[in-house]
Design a protein that fits this description.
Elements: E1 7-10, E2 32-35, E3 42-44, E4 49-59, E5 65-71, H1 73-79, E6 81-83, E7 88-90, E8 97-104, E9 110-112, E10 117-125
Antiparallel strand pairs: 1-4, 2-10, 3-9, 4-8, 5-7, 5-10, 6-8
This protein binds deoxyuridine-5'-triphosphate and magnesium ion (MG).
Length: 153
């Protein structure tokens, strides 16, 4: 099991006490749950989007890594609580607070409790590109086909 050392700053005194520090729920978990660092419960009416603090910042530092903030399947499927940006991308040089854009895309209001697990953070590898401008590509089987080009339906 390979683990990456990651610098984290705790920006709110309640982290590690009233609001648990992020941890992998199981040995095989890909994501760390991010919790709502709120002063009081926050009700999201249908269609509302709010930027919610996590009380944490990370500095990934290594340009070959990034982090993604992804929805939790239970909240998204059962309650319509997903991310206002659909997916959050955390750059390796970002040092600000991790923020979760929380969107109620459902039909009923939803109250986010203080410390509620809102979304999950996944570290991912990144390859930065050096563009080589060419006139033509080598031929591929797919060519320019896309958007359903390979099927009949
Ligand atoms: O859900 C998110 C998405 C982004 N960020 C932070 C980390 C990321 O590195 C930074 C910038 O994000 P992004 O590049 O997606 O936003 P932008 O609209 O392009 O802003 P910028 O001009 O600052 O890059 O904002 C979050 O805290 N949460
Ligand atoms: Mg950007």
């Amino acid at each position: 099991m390979s683990r990456k050392n990651l610098q984290v700053r705790i920006l709110d005194d309640r982290i590690g006490n009233q609001i648990p520090f992020p941890e992998y729920a199981t040995e095989g978990s890909a994501g760390l749950d991010l919790r709502a660092c709120l002063d009081e419960p926050l009700t999201l009416e249908p269609g509302d989007t709010q930027l919610i603090r996590t009380g944490l910042s990370i500095h990934i530092a290594d340009p070959s890594l990034a982090a993604m903030i992804l929805p939790r399947s239970g909240l998204g499927h059962k309650h319509g609580i997903v991310l206002g940006n659909l997916v959050g991308l955390i750059d390796s040089d970002y040092q600000g607070e991790l923020m979760v854009s929380c969107w109620n895309r459902g039909r009923t209001s939803f109250t986010v409790d203080v410390g509620e697990r809102l979304a999950q953070l996944v570290l991912v590898p990144v390859v930065q590109a050096d563009f080589e401008v060419v006139a033509e590509f080598d031929t591929s089987v797919r060519g320019e086909g896309g958007f359903g080009s390979t099927g009949t339906r």
